[in-house]
Structure formats: structure tokens, C-alpha cells
Amino acid sequence: MAISYFGDKEKQPEKSELPDILGTTFSLWEKTDEQLLTLCPELTGYWKFPTKKAGWTWIDAQKKSVLLYRQPCENHFRATIVLGEASVNAVLDSSELSDTLKTKIEETTAYAEGRSILIEIHTEKDLDELLYLLPYKLK
């Protein structure tokens, strides 16, 4: 079974399906869109089916650089942001960083392309963690 609610490779999702799937967290999806557009007005978004395990994933990109991966799930969504080591160090040095997010970042594996930080968005607090990281992606 795919992580994303949309696991059928033959049927690309429509954004109009998201309110029914995400339920009350659809407003958090929209807030993510708004924040991304504020930070990056030339943002583009598109669906991609990277693997059968992942399922359909919404990609937010600036030119050819991916800013954020989002997978719709039932009543929540998963957001993954990849930060380079310089950005990770800047985030970890921040005095505003919550202990929860700090631990989450420290526990991720560092790869050549950076650290993939996954945040499941169920609440405003979860979204705040994601939105806190977005400006570091653009540095």
C-alpha cells in the first residue's frame, strides 16, 4: 500500500480531491501553499508518482529545485523538506527551535544532498514546524 492516499499510478489525482481526503487539515495544506508563494513567487507545483511505495506526491519547486514534497493521506499530509548541511547547522543553532524539531533533525541521516526531514501535518503546531524550516531551504 502506498504512503500517499493516491496509490493508483494510472490515475493522477486532482487538487480538487484534496478537501475530501485531507478533511480539516486541508486548511493547513492551503496555508503551506500561501507561505510557499510568499517566500517564492515563481513557485510551481505538480503531481509525480516517484515509487509505488510513495504513491502520488505533490512537488513544490522553484525552477528545477524541489522545495517540498507533500503526500496527501487520510485526514493529514506528510511533508518532506531536504536541507543541506549548512542550512541544518543554521537551524540547529537557532534559539527559536523547539526541542522536538531539533531532535527530529538530529536523528535524520545526513546524505550528500542533505537531510530529509519528514513532518506529518495533523495540527497547526506541526505546520509551524514545517513553516519554520522553509526559509532555510531558500538560503
How many H/I helical runs?
5
Q: How are the strands of the largest sheet arranged?
A: 1-2-3-4-5
Instruction: Tell me the distance between the termini.
Output: 36 Å
- Mean of pLDDT: 94
State the major sheet. 5 strands, antiparallel
Structural class: alpha+beta
The number of E-state strands comes to 5
Radius of gyration: 15 Å
Strand content: 25-35%
Share of helix, binned:
25-40%
Regions with pLDDT < 50 over 5+ consecutive residues? none
Order of helices and strands: HHEEEEHHEH
Task: Give the CA-based shape.
Answer: globular
Question: What does this molecule look like?
Answer:
The relative contact order is 0.18. Helix 2 packs parallel to helix 5 (124-137). It contains five helices and five strands, in the order H-H-E-E-E-E-H-H-E-H. The mean pLDDT is 94. A hairpin with a 2-residue loop joins strand 3 and strand 4 (76-83). It has helices spanning 18-22, 26-39, 85-93, 99-106, 124-137; strands spanning 43-48, 57-62, 65-73, 76-83, 115-121. Strands 1-2-3-4-5 form a five-stranded antiparallel β-sheet. The protein is α+β, with helices and mostly antiparallel strands and 139 residues long. It is globular.
